[in-house]
Amino acid sequence: MWAAIFGTLAFDLRMVYEQTILTRREGPQMLGFSTAHLFPGLLILGVLALLAGYVCLAAFVLWAIRNRVTGRPGFTRLDWVQCAVLICVLAVPYVPYSAWQLATVEIAGPGRGAVSQLARAASENDRLLVRALLHARVPVNQPTPYGDTPLNHACVSGAITMARYLISRGARLDDAPNCRQIGEFRAQMKPPPPEPGSGLPKVPGTTIEVHAQDH
């Protein structure tokens, strides 16, 4: 059981690192992606340890029920401590990614990837994380490295309530072109710029008649 605990713990620590420090520095992550490229052995070990942990936990529960039913001696205090620790390390992967981000912002403040975090949180309608990032003075109109704003992300994903909230916090509609697809926002936006060449005078079309020649 201890092998499963330590293997799972190593995997947990790496995942927590990706969801906190690495996310704060680089922005939202595809969890496990960097581990698969940099430490593939750790990823394989972690998955195997997780599976072994579930097997050990199931065996422990079944054995406890068997002892209870048959009246055999129960587990020792150390056995119960092992089981409690195993449950804790198995529970870590179930903590939501947004909860780790929120805790990081509250404890350490925003990092270099804060604007990307804000855009992702806006698209996922994560009001708590968005509020925490704005409270930490992350600029609501600063574009992400891909050039679009958090408000644009909210409109793309159809998070209307979140878009209204961002606008109430100073987000500029005219910097979010995809908000034009939503009627209530389109009415508040400036007309789109004319397409290139649309202001040039039109040349009347000509018609060429082709007559069949009799042979």
Overall SS class = mainly alpha
Q: How many alpha or pi helices?
A: 10
Average residue pLDDT: 89
SSE arrangement, N to C: HHHHHHHHHH
Total strands: the figure is 0
**Rg calc:** 28 Å
Largest sheet features: none
- Uncertain residue ranges: 206-210
Cα-to-Cα separation, first versus last residue? 98 Å
How would you describe the shape?
Answer: elongated
What does this structure look like?
The protein has helices at residues 2-26, 33-38, 40-70, 77-91, 97-108, 114-123, 127-135, 150-156, 160-168, 183-186. By secondary structure, it is mostly helical. The protein folds into 2 domains: 2-95; 110-186, Alpha Horseshoe (Serine Threonine Protein Phosphatase 5, Tetratricopeptide repeat). The radius of gyration is 28 Å and the shape is elongated. It starts with a helix and ends in a 29-residue tail after the last helix. Residues 206-210 have low confidence and may be disordered.
What's the arrangement of secondary structure elements?
Elements: H1 2-26, H2 33-38, H3 40-70, H4 77-91, H5 97-108, H6 114-123, H7 127-135, H8 150-156, H9 160-168, H10 183-186
